[in-house]
Design brief:
The chain has helices at 32-43, 94-97, 101-106, 116-126, 134-145, 154-165, 176-197, 205-220, 229-239, 252-272, 304-315, 370-374, 385-400, 405-413, 423-444, 449-468, 472-483, 485-488, 491-495, 499-511, 515-527, 536-549, 560-577, 591-598, 606-616; strands spanning 46-51, 69-74, 77-85, 108-114, 281-287, 292-299, 322-328, 332-335, 352-357, 553-554, 557-559, 599-603. It is an alpha+beta fold.
Length: 620
């Protein structure tokens, strides 16, 4: 099966390579400039080879893969493999394949595999700055930039881009126009990369150093290439760098001093905004017993005394009687002081947080026992189901809207484990699991049969409302909570559910049917308009199957077919977050409902949940 990574090859027709010492056959006069490029590569020790079982003349029969592949070799090793997409083959959209109109008619070449450096070089050579093909070029860059962490680090990419911008390869043979075009292509790729990453990688030290260096190089090139002034403004816009003086009034040396002054101001601004991470929201689990915890929505820089105040208010216990303890593994305990930070810089808790009484000494004496937990009255009966679904959707959207596509790549390939790269993604996955446990907890803590029936009816309504609000992540969580074994075994309770609610629940269950690779969910989700929240575990499953089912490298060359599939999959995040019509998924919800949704009461021990279930309806 042919595939396309969205990168075009420099030839629109296949060169017929004969025996060593022969020459490429380029039938059109317009290919002379490309022949010159091949000659330059040949002087540098590069060769283009083609395996062919038939003559290169066109035939009416589709040719095999072996007949249409070209190998670029350096020092006796393959460094780039290209495959021709002929006009006889099923046509792909030009914007996806990366070919222009002419290439779409006559066939062109796409990357199959290669070294990271050669793939990047090929991309830059084939990049077009034509406004009419801007969207096309952006798609090509997108295909490369989204999955690049799979095969090269951010630092390596920065160094490669700087090398292409400052290359001396064609010095003496490259005229000013060619040099300007090469620099503009690199700057366009950088601009696309920064726009794609937004704030995701902006705090990375290699990226900051790279942008400082590149900005200095561009300023130094302004006198020789005045057309780069637009690119300087773009770099300033991306990083909020403001020139104090006109560009043309200063020498490159003076401009460099101005640049470093601006950068120092920018660094001071970043330090002044170092508390920005504290505005990010996080979920905090505070255990009140070994099995029961409160899930509390807090800001990333919350202090121990702030969290203690929230828990004390929630539990209706004087704050002076409580202490917050972080349990580390294996078995360490730290009593947090009032001004201690609860989360590390990566927005992860310092340990498993427990609440205990100060007079408990070194022992984590439980604040309440399980019997008191079971007698806790459900607050759900006083809340409107639509308002609860709105609050749940608003909560999920706040997290989902901050997820970057590359978080799925980092999460799947386990890069930078424990860093901030996947915090938002892990947070939403955690929230999905919590909503499922919350549904189970509320039902199993309801002591009377009639009230349990009313509670299940409410949860069925909430699931339907979440689907209507295009929040499929929470929809799945509620349905899975009701389908859990500890709840599903309550036959006396389910028998009392009215028929119309059973029918509604059955219809909602159909969408969660995993048969045919979740076809029911995929078909329904595809029809929903953006913005919408997908079921994240299934999206991660798709990426994991791509990862596990395809090798990342073939003969030490990057398998770009796999990377293209990954890029297509993770782009779903952006499509779900963006709405061209300006519609919003969020709605207003009452403070009481938000307070309830932001502080969920959860039992996370399956054995405890089953004990509660058997206590409500003993086994016959």
């Amino acid at each position: 099966m042919s595939w396309d990574c969205g990168l075009r090859y420099m030839f629109s027709v296949a060169p017929a390579v004969q025996q060593p010492g022969g020459m490429c056959i380029l039938p059109d006069k317009e290919d002379l400039s490309r022949l010159e490029m091949v000659q330059r590569l040949a002087k540098d020790g590069c060769r283009f080879l083609q395996n062919h079982s038939k003559s290169p003349e066109k035939t009416s029969e589709p040719r095999s893969d072996e007949a249409v592949r070209i190998y670029l070799r350096e020092r006796g090793h393959n460094v780039l493999v290209l495959q021709r997409v002929s006009s006889e083959w099923p046509a792909l959209p030009a914007s996806t394949r990366g070919g222009g109109r002419e290439e779409a008619r006559h066939g062109r070449f796409v990357v199959v595999a290669g070294t990271p450096e050669k793939i990047l070089e090929h991309l830059l050579n084939d990049l077009t700055l034509d406004d009419n093909q801007g969207k096309e070029s952006d798609t090509l860059l997108d295909d490369f930039l989204l999955p690049y962490p799979v095969f090269m680090s951010t630092s390596d990419l920065c160094q490669a881009l700087l090398g292409h911008y400052c290359t001396k390869r064609y010095r003496g043979r490259e005229d000013r126009k060619e040099a300007l075009e090469r620099k503009q292509k690199v700057l366009h790729l950088v601009s696309q990369w920064m726009s794609l990453c937004k704030d995701f990688l902006r705090d990375e030290e290699p990226v900051k150093v790279f942008m400082k260096t590149l900005y200095r190089y561009v300023l130094d090139d302004l006198y020789e290439h005045p057309a780069l002034e637009a690119d300087v403004r773009e770099l300033q816009k991306l990083y909020q760098l403001h020139q104090r003086h006109a560009v043309d009034e200063y020498s490159p040396q003076r401009k460099s001093k101005t640049l470093f002054h601006q950068l120092s101001l920018k660094e001071a601004e970043l330090q002044a905004r170092s508390t920005q991470r504290e505005t990010k929201e996080a979920l905090c689990h505070v255990y009140v017993t070994m099995d029961v915890y409160l899930s509390i929505k807090v800001h990333g820089g919350v202090l121990a005394q702030e969290l203690l105040h929230i828990v004390a208010e929630r539990m209706d216990v004087p704050q002076e009687e409580l202490a917050l303890v972080a349990v580390t593994f294996p078995g360490g305990r730290v009593f947090l002081q009032p001004q201690d930070r609860v989360f590390s810089d990566s927005l992860r808790p310092l340990g498993r947080l427990h609440i205990c009484r100060k007079d408990a000494g070194e022992f984590l004496f439980p604040l309440i026992d399980n019997s008191e937990v079971q007698q806790r009255s459900a607050r759900m009966f006083s809340l409107n189901t639509w308002d609860v679904a709105v609050a749940l959707t608003n909560f999920d959207w706040t997290i989902f809207n901050s997820i970057h596509e590359q978080q799925l790549v980092y999460f799947t390939f386990s890069r930078h484990a424990g860093s901030h790269h996947t915090v938002a993604l892990e947070l939403l996955l955690q929230r999905c699991n919590e909503v499922q446990l919350w549904v189970m907890t509320e039902v199993l803590l309801c002591p009377t049969l009639c009230r349990r029936v009313q509670l299940i009816k409410k949860f069925i309504k909430i699931a339907a409302h979440c689907k209507a609000q295009r929040n499929l992540n929470c929809f799945f969580a509620v349905i899975m909570g009701l389908n859990a074994a500890a709840v599903g075994r309550l036959t006396q309770t389910w028998e009392k559910i009215p028929g119309k609610f059973k029918k509604l629940f059955s219809e909602l269950e159909t969408m969660t049917d995993p048969s045919l690779n979740h076809k029911a969910y995929r078909d329904s989700f595809k029809k929903m308009k953006a913005p919408k929240i997908p079921f994240l575990p299934l999206l991660l499953k798709d990426i994991t199957f791509i990862h596990e089912g395809n090798k990342t490298f073939h003969d030490n060359l990057v398998n770009f077919e796999k990377l293209h599939m990954i890029a297509d999959t993770v782009r779903l995040i952006r499509q779900c977050q963006t709405d061209p019509m300006g519609n919003s998924i969020t709605q207003k919800s009452s403070p009481d409902v938000r307070a309830y949704v932001d502080y969920l009461h959860i039992i996370d021990n399956q054995q405890t949940l089953f004990e509660l279930s058997h206590r409500l309806e003993p086994r016959a």
